[in-house]
Amino acid sequence: MECSKRSSLLALVLVSLCCLASSTDISHDGRALKINGERRIIISGAIHYPRSTPEMWPDLLRKAKEGGLDTIETYIFWNGHEPRRREYYFEGNYDVIRFFKEIQNAGLYAILRIGPYVCAEWDYGSTLAMVTIAIILHPIIQTVQNSGQKIGLAGNLKQPKWGHLKELHAALKSMEKSLTYGEVNNTDFGNGVAATKFSYNATVSGCFLSNANQSSDATLEYQGTKYFLPAWSVSILPDCKQEVYNTAKVTTQTSIMVKKPNKANDEASDLKWSWRPETLGSSVRGLGGNFTENKLLEQIITAVDESDYLWYMTSVDISHKQQMTLRVNTTGHVLHAFVNGQLVGSQYGPNGNWVFVFERTAKFKAGKNHISLLSVTVGLKNYGARYELEPAGIVSGPVQLIGGNITIDLSTNAWSYKIGLDGEKTKVYLDNPDRKWYSGIIPTQRPFTWYKVLMLYCDAT
Ligand SMILES: *[C@@H]1O[C@H](CO)[C@@H](O)[C@H](O)[C@H]1NC(C)=O
Ligand SMILES: *[C@@H]1O[C@H](CO)[C@@H](O)[C@H](O)[C@H]1NC(C)=O
Ligand SMILES: *[C@@H]1O[C@H](CO)[C@@H](O)[C@H](O)[C@H]1NC(C)=O
Ligand SMILES: *[C@@H]1O[C@H](CO)[C@@H](O)[C@H](O)[C@H]1NC(C)=O
Ligand SMILES: *[C@@H]1O[C@H](CO)[C@@H](O)[C@H](O)[C@H]1NC(C)=O
Ligand SMILES: *[C@@H]1O[C@H](CO)[C@@H](O)[C@H](O)[C@H]1NC(C)=O
């Protein structure tokens, strides 16, 4: 996740909310962030407010604080606040002011990542929360990225990580003075073993003993005491004597995820799937478009984050019945092509290179013929040089029909655009007794099918 590291350093605005009345002075020097002139270790965790409801925020914040965080970090999710140009939304899960007031009530600081850059599996779902602990020290800049959830969406504590991090946070906080003011001395003992000592004064110091060897454990005699250092681990000695934490020897009770048998099933061992078709009818006949343009548009901008699916629909007059080749040059990621309501082919870009040329033969009739192209994105790039300029969809084409010795270029035809599938619009994923789902034999070769299964999980901590 190089992207997260980079953006952490891009724009950090530390907002002091707990002491608005007395106003807090926030600055930094080459070594640490300073609050009211004192160098501090900020232990922050991310809570992405739109992913939970305002009712859930106080409890999430309380658990975060109890876990040793003093700061909550979040992006500002502009795609939710301004879904379309000059249309603003700050209600419900997007009530960011309420979110910050809750942080204030919890007695926590906030780090605001003002965006608009968001690199958090945001566009198309996935992980629910990420924990970033940035320990910013000179000469050590260490970013511990923990992409597993610490507090799940439902606000349940995900042991064992929550407990481990709580211990880690406590150990680091207890070393705040030596880490932010102490003199640093690194000693290399060879074979990947090293000690780093932060000395504040003659009596106050903190040490890290590390074993970077991935295959062999080590025993280190350090300042008169022997320490066992498992392979690929760091030990924390807040007073340079007593080890309170080792990354490989974490002590909190480990939990197990228990998958409950599916109650809706006769045989407890396998899942009971049902299915229903996606209704393609209007789209493959060129109907129901949202707007028309005489050119091929880029997909990400056109679909304005509403769906991974964009229909490009047009029609063409052909003088006589014939076979013709439909050729589409697309920047991907997946293309399904229909001629007169019939699927003529599906294709996706080869791994890592999404640009491809789709070419299939189809029957055309004399007169008006409908061509509907369904372009699908399967996740968007969120880092790398100029990643935001990387297009998707059919963009400028060309889209051509080749028959005999003629080539018809359809790129500047009147293209009608439709965002999303019908199932998305009708929220097929919600329980609705009026909606028919088929069970029994589940078709696996049938294109455009929604599949549903009921899964019950419980967290047995
Ligand atoms: C750094 O620590 C080593 C032993 O761990 C010691 O021999 C050395 O004198 C120390 N250096 C400084 C500058 O304190
Ligand atoms: C790790 O330990 C093994 C065995 O002692 C040694 O052969 C190897 O060179 C060490 N690797 C590093 C990176 O120090
Ligand atoms: C070292 O610093 C601590 C914390 O500020 C202080 O309590 C202690 O008296 C200091 N010790 C010496 C020897 O200066
Ligand atoms: C597109 O049109 C459909 C109706 O045909 C409508 O439900 C949907 O909200 C429209 N989407 C946009 C982005 O205009
Ligand atoms: C196909 O599209 C790509 C990306 O837009 C473009 O670079 C390329 O020139 C196009 N190929 C043709 C034959 O037009
Ligand atoms: C190619 O075009 C010529 C004249 O435009 C026509 O006479 C001929 O039949 C065409 N050939 C085919 C295979 O369509």
Briefly characterize the structure:
The chain is α+β, with helices and mostly antiparallel strands. It has nine helices and 30 strands.
Keywords:
461 residues; alpha+beta; TIM Barrel; Immunoglobulin-like; 4 domains; 6-stranded antiparallel β-sheet; 5-stranded antiparallel β-sheet; 30 strands; 14% helix; disordered N terminus; binds 2-acetamido-2-deoxy-beta-D-glucopyranose
Strand content: 35-45%
What does the largest sheet look like?
6 strands, antiparallel
**CATH homologous superfamily (4th level) name of the largest domain:** Glycosidases
The average pLDDT score comes to 80
Give the termini distance in whole angstroms.
29 Å
Please identify, by name, the CATH architecture of the largest domain: Alpha-Beta Barrel
Give the C-alpha Rg. 29 Å
Helical content (DSSP H or I, runs of 4+): 10-25%
What is the CATH topology of the largest domain? Answer: TIM Barrel
Q: Which class do the helix and strand fractions yield?
A: alpha+beta
Strand order of the largest sheet: 19-28-20-25-22-23
Structure annotation, total helices: 9
Q: How many structural domains does the protein architecture include? A: 4
